[in-house]
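Friendly challenge for the regulars: who can give me the structure tokens for this chain first? No prize, just bragging rights.
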Amino acid sequence: MPVDVLGLTYDFWFRLAEADDNLEAGELPTEPDADGLLYYVRFRRAGDTATPTWPDSGGTADIEVAVRAAEALAPSPIRWEPPAQ
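First reply, four minutes later:
Bragging rights claimed.
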């Protein structure tokens, strides 16, 4: 099963809740890493760079946490490949 670890420059789930006027009182976006990214796991449409899709996980500022989340959610071992250029 293909899987992507996406790096986004914004908190996807926070922005979605904000757009839907569904934020909790005092809710703030997750802080990105030093490169300004939050990492998400995506199984649906993995590898498809032409069509925007929703991530299948919450965001984390630690790419290793996202990798471990992908491995925990996958039904079989993941063979990781370098990112597409």
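The chain has one domain: 4-73. The longest helix spans residues 63-73. Your move, everyone else.
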